[in-house]
Amino acid sequence: MSLPHAILTALLEKPSSGLELTRRFDRSIGYFWSATHQQIYRELGRLEREGLIRALPSEQPARGQRKSYEVLPAGRAELSRWTAASQDPKPLRDPLLPRLRAAAAIGTAGLEDDLRRHLQLHERQLAEYREIERRDFPPGSDSAQDRLHHLILRAGIDLETFWTRWLRHALEEFADLPDGS
After folding, report:
1. What tens digit of pLDDT does each residue of 139-152 get?
2. pLDDT tens, 78-88?
3. Which is nearest to 171 in space by CA: 105, 104, 106, 113?
4. Residues of the chain with pLDDT under 50
5. Which candidate, 90, 167, 154, 91, places its Cα nearest to that of 122?
6. What's the helix, strand, coil split of the chain in %, to 5?
7. From its phi and psi, is residue 106 left (phi > 0), alpha (psi between -120 and 50) or beta?
8. What is the pLDDT of residue 33?
9. How far apart are CA 165 and CA 123, in angstroms?
10. Strands 68-71 and 16-17, how do they pair?
11. Is 30 helix (H, G, I), strand (E, B) or coil?
12. Most buried by CB count within 10 Å: which residue of 75, 87, 141, 180?
C-alpha cells in the first residue's frame, strides 16, 4: 500500500482537510498504515499538483484557512488502477525475530522481559480490535462496505491472535532453556 492511495481512499469516503485526515488515520487507517501529519500534508500537495485531488472552494477566503480536498476523476481512476493491480505479499519484518537469532549466538539476557512486554502490547491491541468489532460490526451489518471493513479488522484480529499465541509459545521455550543460554 502506498500513502497516496490510502489518502485517495480516505478522501473518496469523505472529503476532508489535512487535519481531519490525520485524525482519521489515527483512528482507523493508522492501525495498518501509519503516516505523520507532515507526510499527509506533503502527499496532499503532490496529489493536488498531479491533478488527482482538488481543494474544495471555501465559503470565505482567508489566509491560513483549512482546505478540504476531494478526489477528482483522475484520482478515482488511479485508485481503481492500483486496486486492480497485482501485488506480491511483503515479507514480515519484525526486529524481534533477528534479535532472537542474535540471542542464539550471544545469549538471551534481557530478551525474556521484552518478550513479556511484547505479549502485553499485542494482548492490548487484540482487546482493542475485539472491542471495535463488538461496537462497529453487530450482527446484520452486511453491506458490502461493512463486510470489507470487517474483513480488514479481522486481519488485525487474526494477526494479533497469531502474535499472542507465538509469544506465549516463545516464553514457554525460554522457560525450558538451560541457564546461561
Report:
1. 887 889 889 999 99
2. 999 999 999 88
3. 113
4. none
5. 167
6. 65, 5, 30
7. alpha
8. 78
9. 10
10. antiparallel
11. helix
12. 75
